[in-house]
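User: Before I run my own analysis I want an independent prediction to cross-check against. Here's the chain; please return only the structure tokens and, at the end, one sentence I can use as a sanity check.
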Amino acid sequence: MNRIQTTFAELANKKEKALVGFVTAGDPDIERSRTIITAMCRSGVDILELGVPFSDPTADGPVIQRSSQRALEHQTSLQTVLEMTSDLRKSSQIPVILFSYYNPIYAYGVERFYNDARAAGADGALVVDLPPEEAGELTADWNGDDFALIRLIAPTTPPERIATIANDAAGFLYVVSMTGVTGSSGLDTSHITTLCRKIREITPLPLCVGFGISTPDDVAEVAKTAEGVVIGSAFERLIEENLDQPDIADILARQTAAYKAATRIAD
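Assistant: Structure tokens:
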């Protein structure tokens, strides 16, 4: 089994759900970003989504847009993100998903990206704006099962489309809890339960739900339904609110621990 599969199996044995934490690499700057990521991984993140900063993140709300801008101002590139992944591997075996738009990968070179990402120790990629019909351009030279293409399922995705997306996916499916951009409010857990039930009729892949999840109570509710809970904007908002704090990594670590505690299933 690869690291993603092993993580979900181990969590199931412990009666826990996966805490999937997203942060933009290089935010608020490269060195503090390294410290924050390490602290989060030590404090309870089960799977790390490491965001590649992009100048036009159209699927993201203003909080993550601003995080990308801060990272780009500090010259964070895809190469930087790969170097950060390699550094993290010296202290952690937590699965790392490279979260990106397609443009940075295309500019870097798709074959080079695959080879370098694997060499750095990444476990997969989630490419926000790459539909299944065009994914072959990225994955044509992928081989083996040690690097997963994580796919998104939207609330409006019809069953036949879910089947197409799931057939092209590995690792887990990122289930978007609501329409809109990241950081949106209005979490509807009954809708999430219905959506996850529909997806499970089509695929056995683990389901990780994201968008609109910001409190430990939100995490606990979603964890009743899904195999994982994705938090991104809430982490980035915490970074933004504490840019001048010398203990910013500790602040993120404490919030990570609170979220992780909420993923544990009561007997």
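Sanity check: Residues 62 and 183 are 8 Å apart (CA to CA).
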